[in-house]
Design a protein that fits this description.
Elements lengths: L2 H12 L8 H13 L3 H5 L8 H15 L4 H5 L1 E4 L2 E4 L12 H14 L3 E5 L5 H9 L4 E6 L2 H13 L5 E4 L11 E6 L14 H6 L13 H13 E10 L5 H11 L2 E7 L5 E7 L2
Helix pairs in contact: 1-2, 2-4, 6-7, 10-11
């Protein structure tokens, strides 16, 4: 069967799955991933034929997508802030909105000469690695409670050619006694009550420990913000990603912990997505 026919049949199959609007694009993307080719190559080779083991492997990829598994877990790769990353079900899939946190952190670091940086709950390492890449003079540390996430983050750091110190433990506990200029984090912030409203890709495939933070989604902010205050030098900054509608509550936690000069960064939908604040 020709490539164009494989894609057509695959698209028909995926239209009965949870993402019918992406059926053709997903069918094409998975085939190109399997073949190691790009769309320009496909345009001039649509009449080529393939079968056998390749067809079996393609069918396996389609089965996974038809059940709702995220494309990034199927291919094992994604891009974030212009850098390549490997992802597995042990970590969250990077979101475009998290790039606003990177931009805010880079701006703070450049404006205030913040060189000692720690990323709390690093997951696949996207924040720490993006910051280390764009702030070559910085000394970046990254922590996570998941050993499997740390193994993946270390692999991603090597692949992107940056040096980062990775530590295992809960929040800032493994860094007790140290102080930093800038702390960044994209912590879990989804309410457990909202679980049923999430897409199948998120609800059934991404790690729950990296998604949910109690009944109101604020559990990690309540723990992290006071710990960050203690771990920052006077004049140091904390930058956090936040969820929809959480800005007032998180600002209140920041203020209660002693932070000042809180600033908000909006995402492309004009929703507050990042809060930064200074330890006086």
């Amino acid at each position: 069967m020709r490539l164009r026919d494989h894609i057509s049949h695959a698209g028909t199959r995926l239209r009965s799955g949870p993402h019918p609007d992406r059926a053709h694009l997903d069918a094409e993307f998975l085939l190109l991933h399997l073949l190691g080719k790009n769309r320009a190559w496909l345009f001039s080779h649509q009449d080529e034929e393939f079968g056998g083991c390749t067809a079996i492997r393609y069918a396996s990829l389609l089965d996974r997508r038809a059940k709702g598994e995220p494309i990034q877990y199927i291919t094992g790769e994604c891009e974030f802030y212009g850098l390549p990353f490997r992802v597995t079900p042990d970590v969250l899939i990077p979101r475009p909105e998290t790039e606003h946190l990177v931009e805010a952190a880079i701006t703070l670091a450049n404006q205030h000469n913040l060189l000692r940086i720690v990323d709390v709950g690093t997951g696949s390492g996207i924040l720490a690695i993006a910051l280390a890449h764009h702030l070559p003079a910085a000394r970046v540390t990254a922590s996570d409670l998941s050993t499997s996430a740390l193994v993946l983050a270390e692999e991603n750091a090597r692949h992107n050619g940056v040096a980062i110190r990775f530590v295992h433990g809960d929040l800032l506990a493994p860094l007790a006694g140290e102080q930093f200029d800038l702390i960044v984090s994209n912590p879990p912030y989804i309410s457990t009550a909202d679980r049923t409203s999430l897409s199948i890709e998120v609800r059934d495939y991404e790690p729950a420990t990296a998604l949910f933070a109690g009944n109101d989604g604020l559990a990690f902010y309540r723990r992290l913000i006071p710990a960050a205050f203690a771990a920052l030098i006077p004049g140091g900054f904390l930058a956090l990603e936040i969820g929809f509608g959480q800005s007032p509550a998180v600002q209140a936690i920041l203020s209660a912990a002693g932070f000042v000069d809180t600033e908000s960064t909006l995402d492309l939908q004009k929703i507050p997505r990042v809060l930064s604040a200074r330890r006086p």
